[in-house]
Amino acid sequence: MVHTRPPKTTSRRLGQALLEHGAFLLVFSLGLGLMAWHITTRLKVVPVFMLPSPGRVLARAAQAVLDGTLLINGLVTLGEVLSGLALGVLAATTLGYLLAKSRPVERLLTPYVVASQSIPVVAIAPLLVIWFGPGLFSKVLICALIVFFPVLINTIVGMRTVPDELRELMRSLRATRWQTFTLLEVPAALPVFLGGLRVGATLSVIGAVVGEFVGAKYGLGFLVNIGRGLYDTPLVFVAVFTLIAMAMTLYGIVVLLEYLLLGWQRRPERISRTDEE
Known about the structure:
It is elongated, with a radius of gyration of 24 Å. The chain is mainly alpha-helical and 277 residues long. The chain folds into 2 domains: 38 residues; 225 residues, MetI-like (MetI-like fold, Orthogonal Bundle). The two termini are 17 Å apart. It is built from 12 helices and no strands. Helix 7 runs antiparallel to helix 9 and helix 9 runs antiparallel to helix 11.
């Protein structure tokens, strides 16, 4: 009897090949984009003050690094992002756990939470700066507010995905609330929670920039404002690319956390591969 491999094996191999060539595709797409950018500036399709060449942006970046402008302002924005992300995640996970565990509390607080998210952060950012001043705290608060909602929703959804049968099993084993929380609820909710953290990590950068646009003396958003006012378009590009790199780095850190913390999800796949072989 001839045994044929199941169709899933072919699709899995195709997925592995795409992952292995992902770095090549990323470098190729970036190179293609830079080439298109360079050709556009060489042909002078767009005025130079609107779209500087990659060489001018690179030279401006080198100047900003050498004089310390990029480092100082980048560290200020990074501090705001990390502080706001930590505050937003802490508040969202705490409230999300309470809402997931108590239906009456959810019915009471959900309308207020949804109403608070119906107001754009850009609209209330000036008010927060007026209340708390143009210092660090107002920026951290804006970051926390923009991070709060996606992490909150994913925390609630993650807690609700825990099967009732497993909860009953933990009760039959006379597990304490802490044991149920650490051994059942956290592992079960972690995949969904980390998905929300991916979104929150990137949104935190937006929150910091919004706060710096409203009022700041330092930060990458402040650099964008300075470059715009002086028509220093290369400086604006440098600040924007730094923000992109910061957001992608935070996103990559969350992906790495997923890989480290959710290794148990890959074990069934390894076992199935062994069985197929």
